[in-house]
Amino acid sequence: LAVLGVDLRNKLYATLKSMFGFNQFRHRQKMAITSILKGHDTFVLMPTGAGKSLCYQLPAILSDGVTIVVSPLKSLIEDQTSKMRELGIPCEQLTSELSTDDQESIYTRLGALKPDIKLLYVTPEKISASGRLNSVFFDLHKRGLLARFVIDEAHCVSQWGHDFRPDYTKLHTLRERYTNPKVPIVALTATATPKIVTDARNHLGMKDSKLFISSFVRDNLKYDLIPKASKSLINVVEKMKQLYPGKSGIIYCLSRKECETVQMMLIKSGVSAEVYHAGLNDTTRVTVQRRWLANRVDVICATIAFGMGIDKPDVRFVIHYSLPKSIEGYYQETGRAGRDGLPSYCLMLYSYHDHIRLRRMIEEGNTTTGVRMMHLQNVLQIVAYCENVSVCRRKMLVEHFGEVYDEQTCRTSKTPCDICDRKRKNPEAIRLFDVSDEAKMLMQSLPRMQKTTLKYLSELYRGNLCKKSSEQAMRLGHTSLPFFKRGQGMTEQDALRFVRKLVVEGYVYERLYSAPNQAAAVLAYAELTESGRAIASGAKTAKVYLHIVT
Ligand code: ADP
Fold it and tell me: Which chain positions lie within coiled-coil regions (predicted)?
């Protein structure tokens, strides 16, 4: 700030107070704003709710000329422009919905000697499609009035992200077109996986940008996980009704149908609920969102179509009725809870089988092999997160973004995750077992078996089979396999966790088949991966550990 001079520093605080009504900057905001005002390319990585918008809105007010903000969704643009107008900041939006006359009127205002617009929000397709808009930008640039480009939700540029938007890939033209002098670029996102950040920086031509990262730890969110069983959602809803009567929540579901089923169940339990998914038309979606924002409906049963840019401060719970697509997705979706800083609850209803549904969607999807592999990898990572019973959930989430986190912080916090809570109550509760030998035996046996499910493997491992499976096992000689009964005394769940661990660690792969005569049903049969084969043959050794809650 010293570089900016006392005058500007005072102006910074004065504007923060007079225009936004805040007294203090939040973590990293001031540094990011300083960098932006100095004209550096700036990359801002902050979790949802941290206050990214201020980082470019305040510089926009203090800079000469117009700041162009590219934002992926009309609803986001709508939200931001109405906020800016409320604050008295001259702001306009250019989206495909605007009439030609309205667009022309904005172009004329931008062509004025001293444009009376400080912030102009545009959708990315406007930038790639409109020659007219580009000539307006060129004219501003020539006159030194193009303050900077801001790319909101910059992760949308990366194929590796969960929100890839093809129109975003054209944004590299901004750096290429607006040179001499270069127009600074500011990129903002709440998606912090290093791969996506690098990808976005490269793509936008801002490799050397200053990077401002604030912590991704959300202290006020309690992360919890319970197995998904037929009654679990009803029980959870009853609990939510007691804890947060009449408060806002989101229940994330995988499909439109699931949204509707969950909604019906909620309504039957006396909770006001609506659905939100890509199958609804735009008007209905906007109405649902507005009703929820205005607290006229409490719970939204939604697919991931619901969320980006939703700034409702008092969301008290986010429940995942189905497995999210990645750790990153889970972090973003749960991140919509507790933006006001008050304690909020994030619950995952976990069923391993849900990952098969996700895998099927990915495998049937129309993407390149690379992207498909990445999505499958993401699913395995979230399965690992859910199967885990020993590592703090906060730690797993934020370390996914490269941040270091001491789980002691979670354990001693007011909102410890389910795992830290358990450890706090009984530090001896979680014990570690070396199951490398059993794992190797199982891997050696697998090629000798056909059409084997993980469930069957876990039953053999425990030596606990139903009558039909038992007869089959005897007939096929599976009861003489070396791993048979090695897990005797284990619970059903732990034995399943053992075999799933081999999937998560990449030794076993479940190949999916459509069940004959049942279009929707999927069968998953276990086989060895390349590393599984290497272990089985003895070419490689590996340690496999299993944590068990006692
Ligand atoms: P993000 O885009 O990072 O998700 P927003 O920019 O929407 O977050 O900001 C989240 C909330 O925090 C908004 O209500 C905003 O007004 C508020 N906010 C931002 N900066 C500050 C600040 N310095 N002091 C107080 N509140 C702030």
Answer: none
